[in-house]
Amino acid sequence: MTLSPHPPQRALALHRELERVWGRPRGVRGFLMSVNHSDIGLRFMVLAGIYFGIGGILAMLIRTQLATPRGAFLDSPLYNQIFTMHGSIMMFLFAIPMLEGLAMYLLPKMLGTRDMAFPRLSAFGWWCYLFGGLILLGALATGLAPDGGWFMYAPLSSREHSPGVNADVWLLGITFVEISALCAAIEIVVTILRLRAPGMRLTRMPLFAWYMLGTAVMMLAGFPPLILGSVLLELERAFDWPFFDVARGGDSLLWQHLFWLFGHPEVYIIFLPAAGAISTILPVMCRTTILGYEAIVAAILGLVFLSFGLWVHHMFTVGIPQMALAFFSAASMLVAVPTGVQIFAWIGTMWKGRPQLSLPMLHLLGFFGTFVMGGLTGVMLAVVPFNWQAHDTAFVTAHLHYVLIGGFVFPMMAAAVYWLPLISGRVRVRGLGETAFGLIFLGFHGTFFIMHLTGLLGMPRRIPTYADHPEWMLPNLISTAFAFMMAIGFVLFALDLLLHGVFGRRSPRDPWDAGTLEWTLPLPVPSYNIAAQPVATQPSAVALARGEGALPGAPRGRREVLAGSTLDARPQHVAVLPGNSLLPVATAAVIGIFVLLLLIGAYRLAPLALLVVLACGWAWHRFGRDIRPTRVAVTPGLILPDQTGLRDSLTSTGTVALLVADAALFGSFLFAVGFLGVIAPEWPAPASGLAPAPTLTLIGLVMVALLAASVAGRHGGRTAPLAGALAGLAALAGVAGLALMLDDPTRHARDALRAAALGFVALHIGVGIVLALIARDRQPGTGAAAGRVWRLWQDFTLVTAAALVLVAAGQEALA
Amino acid sequence: MVPGSLAGCTGPLSTLTPHGPEATAIATLWWVMLAGSALITALVLLLLALAFRARRPALPPAFWTQGLGLYFSLGVLTLLMGVTILTGDRLSGRYQPAEVTVEAIARQWQWRFRQPGPDGTPVETTGRLHIPAGVPVEVLIRTEDVIHSFWVPQLAGKLDAIPGHENRLRLIAPEAGLYQGRSAEFSGAGYVDMGFEVLAYPPDDPPAPFTDRRTDPVEAPRP
Amino acid sequence: MRWLLRLAAGPLIWAAGFSAIYALHGIGCAEGWALVATPFGPLHRVALLGGWIATLAAVTLVVARRPRPALDRGDRLLGLGAWIGLVSVVVTLAPVVMVESCPAPYP
Q1: Choosing among B24, B33, B44, B59, which should be mutated to test the A contact, i.e. which has the most A CBs within 10 A?
Q2: Measuring CA to CA, which residue among B77, B157, B72 is closest to residue A380?
Q3: Contact residues, chain B, for C104 at CB < 8 Å
């Protein structure tokens, strides 16, 4: 299918028209209201950079303490806070937000569209990230920072062994930040699947988009286990529900499983976007095209799945059966194959082209020289007997820094210097960046290469002093000296980025002669990205600026982009996107207040904050309600409706993505139930005090009501939403009745799990009621999308509730 | 025999100067893997360097993605799997029945040990485990509070002490002497002090009485 | 969407099989299935091998039904996805042919 572009218009007039619609107010108001992907993406990256600096300062404190055997610089409690915060900040406040920011900033530009699928969600995610990060920083400044290690192992993190608020700060603060990760993942998936320029087939899209699709899917499946673990641990700390207390049917190993179910995929979540940057930048630096597109897509597919099959390799020393060790050892080795495919495809790309030693290329060489070694030590650690020796020693510290700095920081630095002209419209001054690279590269290897040896000499991680071990002194001193060199390098790198904005000369369009879509944009990039969406495979920059494409300008005064089909990007409808709004910051602020209330233990006030969140959610939906249905000539001859009245809107794709994450959460919960029942020592649980007759009646009521709500959702029609909401209320009443009858959740883990399950169902019923009311609130002609979202949610609620009933029935039958 | 006895690799917790069969097998595995990794790193760096040469052969894409990426990686990893299984076999302690069973009980922040005393009756000590040299010993590892990890690097790999579970570690101290051990799982404020020692005595000449580490330092040769 | 699901079919089967066999292994150890005799050997072994064979059969079906001849990049990717599933099932679950060794049952 070929589309013919609109005829050319005056570029300047188009620009003014688009800026009026896509721009934001000046000053603080604009800062608070902006939802634009370039703004938000940039903010994510800047804030992540600031956190990298803070995490780096903490790292230097650690290195200073370890420079000598009897470092008296930090005492043990403070040292514990500092290494815990170093790890947590680098993982949750630097790496993840940095990749989210990069994706948000670049994806719409690479895919030939104007914004992410859910602009307000991007902004909301950023504010959650900011506020959550501020909570953690506040704790650090007041000496209340988490101190149980970035993995927060139970039972060290339980109320008994960590009585202070420190652990709560981690659990609540990090979970708050993870909201932004889930938001980002959902919109990355929807943007890539639905918002590509017309005709850009999935199998032809830029590799970076494939990488981000893989990353986002992994985030949808990988973050929920940690969120579940954090919620359960916080419930245990706050209300004494014994999920991890072995004396009452819990098991501390459950935390490790949930944590590493997240924690291992996390490594690949961080690596994949970096690999996407490499696959984009490397061919340009070598004046050629990428070698092995299909092999790389297959490698991404393999990594996305396989990386979920090796979480236990962080637990080789907890005492698990040989065969289970073998499963995870084999998976850990197999996952190295797709990584190998990519590495060699990149080297092949270099052989194919003519590599040039510009600054991005230097950073990419830094990547190769570092990451390959990190990968190899990773394979070593997958060898079970060796892992028994190396686990929890400085060897692992060295390995993970080779992987993360090699596999993420170097590619990100390449990405920063490569895409800088998009942001600033300037090219950097030569010299400073090259020096910075040299210092970082030498400093890095000087710091961490010898740390492998330190670990093999037996030095464990996380100790502040080593007075009895003079043999560790020299390697530690070397590490510290080079760490300072690396730190200076990073300062110079930051300085280079800042100075280029002042001294850099104006950049021509496409300064790298890359020829890819994001470089056809004017520099610095305007708020709307492109004056018209490209319809040809090789659009010319000038033609696009004149509006020769689809949907030129903003003649209807709305933010419009084309939404298409998943595989072949056939245009389906015009998506009208929301503009500047205070809702994201307001909603995030209220959630922040909710978290703070939980932190100070004001459990009675906290639900009030949730009510305000609900009110914000209601206000959120009014944008969709108020769109005036319009039919638009997206190109001459192709007239499409906007999303009003369509079932297959972006929101419904987004709901599917959300439900994937929800299903991962639910699956993790089922895993927790099964794990405790099979592995935890204090099982079977004491007999349940639930009276059979009333319990069964109430369960019957809930299930019938949920079934009725689902039928109503399926039926559609004007009165269906109200009927569904009423059925939801009945189900909620049944759940409340069950909650009153439940065994004391503090008695045994089984009872705590049942209480948690009831909470899960109640939350879903509640959200279902709100969604039904939203569907009811829509105009007859524009309610189809809202109705479909409600129906998906209602069906999910029904299925999960039924599964939980079956699980409980199974428990009773076996007891 | 192993290169680890070179200067710079020694130390009471060094995994590179192993003594028991378990630790020795693992150290050998390490040197093998190090050699292999060095070769692979050298290969990758060489390929990278050659990419900058003006004249280089044009290689088909399949050479990179399938030849090197798929088959080379799979081959190396299969080889490594084989070596791993062989090493697992050489961890002979696993197959020999243990002649002595001792208990290691961890709590914040010390280790207690229960072992057959000089006269055969159980004796409890703090911070020092007494075992006969040259005899397969089974260590039952438990904890009374948080997670800890039992680790005597020169004898065997580490194994965690998990609340509610009991782990079993098999080890042999080939010659008499004092071996250093410590907890290898972060356990809070006093973690740094969770060291202990293993006194391997000649089976026919046990020291009497068994003593605690803090109160009675012993002078025993470092093996 | 359908194409993406087909692309992921092999790896999805691997994920399901891997989870199921890991669960069977844990349950079997906890319930002492190694001591339950069946006509084909101890129940634990039968369950694990059975799970593996079922997973292999399912993923082999995906490989057999990959588009042939592959007409375009989309078809070729579907083939690669199927092979990834098969290789993953073979390699990561191969340990089920090992002799089972559950740890000593907890008191």
Answers
A1: B44
A2: B77
A3: 168
Put simply, the answer to whether B168 touches C104 (Cβ < 8 Å) is yes
Domain ranges of chain B: 21-93, 100-201
Contact C26 A204 (CB under 8 A): no
Q: What is the pLDDT of residues A184-200, one digit of tens each?
A: 999 999 999 999 999 99
- DSSP letters of C37-86? EETTEEHHHHHHHHHHHHHHHHHHHHHHTS-SS--SHHHHHHHHHHHHHH
Instruction: Write out the residue range of the structural domain in which residue A448 sits.
Output: 37-506
Phi-psi region at B11: left, alpha or beta (left = phi > 0; alpha = psi -120 to 50): left
What distance in Å separates the CA atoms of residue A97 and residue A50, rounded to the nearest whole number?
Answer: 11
Q: Would you state the pLDDT for residue B209?
A: 87
* Nearest CA distance, B50 vs chain A (angstrom): 8
> Of A362-371, A717-726, B29-38, where does mean pLDDT reach its minimum?
A717-726
> pLDDT tens digit string along C68-100?
898 999 999 999 999 999 999 999 998 888 766
Residue A285: the pLDDT is 96
Chosen domain end from A476, A506, A536: A506
Q: How many domains, chain A? A: 2
**Which of B70, B101, B160, B166 is the mutation pick for testing C, counting most C CBs within 10 A?**
B166
Please, which residues bridge with residue A505 across strands?
A427
pLDDT of the residue at A509: 87
Q: Which CATH class is domain B100-201?
A: mainly beta
CATH code of the domain covering residue A424: 1.20.210.10
Question: Is A495 in CB contact (< 8 Å) with chain C?
Answer: no
Rounded Cα distance, A33 and A240, in Å: 41
Q: Rounded CA gap, A227 and A262, in Å?
A: 9
Which chain B residues are Cβ-neighbours of C106 within 8 angstroms? Answer: 165-166
Residue A273 lies in a domain: yes
* CATH at residue A692: 1.20.120
In a domain, A226, yes or no: yes
Give CA–CA dist B123/B199, Å, rounded.
14
pLDDT tens digits along A760-803: 999 999 999 999 999 998 877 777 888 899 999 999 999 999 99
Q: How far apart are CA A499 and CA C22, in angstroms?
A: 55
Q: How confident is the model at residue A265 (pLDDT cuts 50, 70, 90)?
A: very high
Q: What is the pLDDT of residue B90?
A: 65
Query: What's the rounded Cα separation, in Å, for the pair A783 and A410?
Result: 48
Task: Provide CB contacts within 8 A for A28, sequence distance 6+.
Answer: none
Alpha carbon of C104: minimum distance to chain B alpha carbons (Å): 9
C-alpha neighbours within 13 Å on the C-beta side of residue A192: 28
d(CA C56, CA B222): 54
**A133: closest CA among A172, A166, A164, A168?**
A172
Cβ partners under 8 Å of residue A185, min gap 6: A215, A216, A217, A219, A220, A223, A657, A661
A193 contacts on C by Cβ (under 8 Å): 1, 4
Query: Using CA atoms, how far apart are residues A26 and A41, in angstroms rounded to an integer?
Result: 18
Residue of A nearest to C103 (CA): A321
pLDDT of B91 > 80? The answer is no
- What does the alpha-carbon distance between residue C52 and residue B29 come to, in Å, rounded to a whole number? 30
* CA distances to A275, A345, A435 from A269, in Å: 10, 20, 30
pLDDT averaged over every residue in chain A = 94
- The answer to whether the peptide bond before residue B209 is cis (omega within 30 degrees of 0) is yes
At A366, is the secondary structure helix, strand, or coil? helix
Summarize the confidence of residues A371-395 as an average pLDDT: 94
Sequence ranges of the domains in chain C: 2-94
* Domain boundary, last residue among A506, A541, A573: A506
DSSP H or E stretch at residue A576? strand A571-577
d(CA C72, CA A16): 43
